């Protein structure tokens, strides 16, 4: 669980790395991209407590989907 920010780190660099964050109703609430194609810092500031789905993308290609809990 996180309260203020979290990091997404890939095991190796991914071209055009970005994330899309969705709430449990499927609404996209946040996007972020990486400046180094390996790590993304995501702020949870102002987010409602709950579980969110994170889609990690390489350009338009879906790499992985993960969940994060915001407290």
Q: Secondary-structure element sequence?
A: EEEEEE
Through-space gap between termini: 6 Å
- Outline: globular
Oligomer: single chain
State the total count of DSSP E strands.
6
Counting DSSP H or I runs of 4 or more residues, the number of helices is 0
Query: What about the largest sheet?
Result: 4 strands, antiparallel
Mean pLDDT: 95
> Which strand order does the major sheet show?
3-2-5-6
Hey, roughly how much beta strand do the residues contain?
over 45%
Residue share in helix? under 10%
What would you call the structural class?
mainly beta
Task: Give the C-alpha Rg.
Answer: 12 Å
Poorly predicted tracts of residues: none
Explained architecture:
- It is built from no helices and six strands.
- With 71 residues, it is mostly beta strands.
- It has strands at 5-9, 17-22, 28-33, 39-43, 50-58, 61-70.
Could you outline the blueprint of secondary structure elements for this entry?
Blueprint: E1 5-9, E2 17-22, E3 28-33, E4 39-43, E5 50-58, E6 61-70
Antiparallel strand pairs: 1-4, 2-3, 2-5, 5-6
Give short descriptive properties of this protein.
58% strand; mainly beta; four-stranded antiparallel beta sheet; 71 residues
Write a brief caption for the model.
The protein is mainly beta and about 70 residues long. Helix content is about 0%, strand content about 60%. It has no helices and six strands.
